[in-house]
From TrEMBL:
Family note: Belongs to the cytochrome c oxidase subunit 3 family.
Protein name: cytochrome-c oxidase
One Pfam family cited in the UniProt record for this chain: COX3
Subcellular location: Cell membrane; Membrane
Annotated GO MF terms: cytochrome-c oxidase activity
Predominant cellular place of this UniProt entry's protein: membrane
Record InterPro entries: Cyt_c/ubiquinol_Oxase_su3, Cyt_c_oxase_su3_dom, Cyt_c_oxidase-like_su3, Cyt_c_oxidase_su3-like_sf, Cyt_c_oxidase_su3_a-hlx
An annotated GO cellular component: plasma membrane
Transmembrane segments: 16-36, 48-69, 90-110, 157-179, 191-208, 228-257, 277-295
Length: 296
């Protein structure tokens, strides 16, 4: 990728990666839609298109990351570019806060307003009397989560098993990435690689435990995405968080490879800092999830 160096701000030359990204994502979503809506026995076309799109997205990431890394190592970026990167990352994390805030808002509305109303409190007197007279207004119980004929009988997930373990895992990962950051600023390359590698492993361990929890919820507790409002909010919140942990772990692994190649210095390492900010955000979101989804 060529580039143009201006006095104030670095302006890269035209790139084909944005259009590759757009086409790849369109193909992926197109295939997923056909796969999900296919008739029995006709899912092959949609599934094939979906995986083609996924491979294209992975190739796009690899190529685009390579181009940006080359720009960074070439010395093309100045202080103004660094400030714009930091502001961009801040706004990105803010958008993620709003994203999770919408789901937490839905959870709070369902628990604080909708469930009590269906139980006959406040404005829900007539709803309780004429629509669902035997409704049990208890959050998390099968009666509080939805009619048995819709979601079936299910059990809630206890907070003090795998959720607590995952909380300790993520808190530990926040410590290890902080250690790695201090090691990078001190110029201790070995400690940097050990701390960052430990963070990647802890992220993978978290995902493994969450997958095990999902399997337990489905097989032993009969809890699914269709198990009323409890199942819907549980899987939407924890699932989207798990997706963010997956992305964060991939980014941490890429940063580890870059650190191993000596790409960062103690004075110039915003790529590392950006991923560290994102990982700390993921930690904070999980603490809120653990409190409001599992404990309360």
């Amino acid at each position: 990728m060529g580039q143009q160096q201006h006095d104030v701000y670095f302006v890269p030359s035209k790139s084909y990666w944005p259009i590759v990204a757009a086409v790849s994502m369109f193909v992926t979503v197109f295939g997923a839609a056909h796969w999900l809506n296919a008739q029995p026995g006709d899912a092959g076309f949609g599934e094939t298109i979906f995986w083609v799109g996924v491979v294209a997205i992975l190739g796009m990431f690899f190529g685009w990351f390579r181009s940006v890394i080359r720009e960074s190592l070439s010395g093309s970026y100045n202080d103004q570019v660094d400030r714009s990167f930091r502001m961009g990352m801040m706004w990105f994390i803010f958008s993620e806060v709003m994203f999770f805030g919408a789901f937490f808002g839905a959870l709070f509305y369902a628990r604080i307003f909708s469930v009590p109303w269906l139980g006959g409190e406040g404005h829900g007197v007539l709803t309780h009397q004429f629509i669902w007279e035997n409704y049990n207004a208890a959050w998390g119980a099968s009666g509080g989560g939805g009619p048995g004929k819709i979601g079936g009988s299910f059990q809630t997930i206890a907070a003090w098993g795998l959720p607590l373990l995952n909380t300790l895992i993520l808190l530990s990962s926040g410590v290890t990435i902080t250690i790695a950051h201090h090691a990078l600023k001190a110029g201790h390359r070995k400690a940097l690689l050990i701390g960052l590698g430990a963070t990647v492993l802890l992220g993978c361990l978290f995902l493994f435990c969450q997958a095990h929890e999902y399997a337990e919820a489905y097989e032993h507790f009969n809890l699914t995405l269709g198990s009323g409002v409890y199942g819907a909010t549980f899987f939407m919140l924890t699932g989207f968080h798990g997706m963010h942990v997956t992305l964060g772990t991939i980014m941490l692994a890429i940063i580890w490879v870059r650190c191993a190649k000596g790409h960062f210095t103690k004075d110039d390492h915003f790529g590392f800092e950006a991923v560290a900010w994102y990982w700390h955000f993921v930690d904070v979101v999980w603490l809120a999830l653990f409190l409001f989804v599992y404990v309360l």
